[in-house]
């Protein structure tokens, strides 16, 4: 009887341990959209390096976004998300990040001005490198090749289709640069509402849409003058800075696990590769 009780207890403990989530839980489940790496030793080395890298975002920022999304669900604010289908290593530069950022600023200002509600701004960037695919292979000129799955996994060139774990490190370092640029724009004065006229994109400057935006910017400028006339300073932080969050598809779980951290405040676990996944 005692033997049966011990066996039953061990069985229950094993079941409970299986149900407890850990950052590695995904490795014991059926996962789709994952590349097959031929060099497992190199993959483990990259994962170890990433696990020692600084987080790209912080738990407190993720909590702030969660609170903001709760207000969106209650109809107290808008959610605006924008960005590319997938980021590229070769096409990365400061101007590209800036243009995406100011386009989202424009759209957010229009939504806020028209609705009277705050707009939560999320950029699909600083980590959007993986692409979902319906087939593992594709046929080109009668030859079979592995499908291109995004720069974090392999290359578009036919001789770069083998998944390379070192690409995760390049994706991380580019994401660091992107987030640094976004933080600088958000807190360094670029998001100052008084600069709203300068947010117009160069290619839209002489278009009908560009003209409509200038008219809108004029209305905002007149409103700011009115607010100043009431004795409310538009030089306060809420007029000069804005919260800007990042997001990407959570597809490459080796990368995501390596950037998962325990929050020092609460000991809760956060994937610190982006504010929203």
Jot down its keywords.
globular, 3-stranded parallel beta sheet, 10% strand, 277 residues, 7 strands, mainly alpha, single chain
Low-confidence parts lasting 5 or more residues at pLDDT below 50? none
Q: Strand order across the biggest sheet? A: 1-2-5
How many helices?
8
What percentage of residues falls in helices of 4 or more residues?
Answer: 40-55%
Average pLDDT, rounded to a whole number, is: 86
How would you describe the overall organization of this protein?
The chain has 277 residues and is mainly alpha-helical. It has one domain. It has helices at 2-19, 40-51, 59-73, 94-115, 166-187, 208-229, 237-240, 253-258; strands spanning 78-83, 119-124, 137-140, 143-146, 244-246, 260-262, 269-271. The chain has a 3-stranded parallel sheet, with helices on both faces. Strand 6 and strand 7 (269-271) form a beta hairpin. Helix 2 (40-51) runs parallel beside helix 5 and helix 4 packs across helix 5. The termini are far apart.
């Amino acid at each position: 009887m005692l033997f049966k009780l011990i066996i039953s207890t061990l069985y229950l403990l094993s079941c409970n341990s299986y149900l407890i989530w850990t950052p590695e839980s995904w490795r014991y489940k059926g996962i789709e959209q994952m590349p097959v790496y031929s060099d497992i030793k190199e993959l483990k080395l990259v994962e170890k390096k990433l696990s020692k890298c600084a987080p790209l975002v912080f738990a407190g920022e993720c909590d702030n976004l969660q609170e903001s999304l709760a207000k969106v669900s209650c109809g107290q604010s808008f959610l605006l998300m924008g960005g590319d289908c997938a980021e590229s290593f070769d096409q990365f530069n400061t101007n590209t990040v800036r243009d995406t950022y100011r386009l989202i600023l424009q759209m957010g200002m229009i939504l806020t001005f028209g609705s009277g509600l705050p707009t939560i701004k999320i950029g699909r960037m600083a980590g959007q490198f993986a692409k979902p695919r319906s087939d593992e292979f594709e046929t080109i000129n009668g030859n079979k090749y592995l499908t291109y799955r995004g720069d974090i996994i392999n290359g578009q060139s036919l001789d770069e289709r083998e998944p390379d774990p070192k690409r995760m490190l390049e994706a991380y370092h580019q994401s660091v640069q992107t987030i640094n640029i976004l933080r600088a724009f958000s807190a360094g004065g670029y998001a100052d509402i008084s600069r709203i006229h300068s947010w117009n994109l160069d290619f839209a400057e002489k278009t009908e849409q560009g003209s409509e935006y200038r008219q809108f910017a004029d209305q905002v400028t007149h409103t700011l003058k009115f607010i100043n006339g009431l004795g409310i300073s538009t030089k306060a932080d809420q007029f000069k800075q804005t919260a800007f969050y990042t997001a990407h598809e959570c597809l490459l779980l080796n990368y995501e696990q390596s950037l998962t951290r325990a929050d020092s405040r609460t000991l809760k676990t956060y994937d610190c590769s982006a504010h929203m996944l």
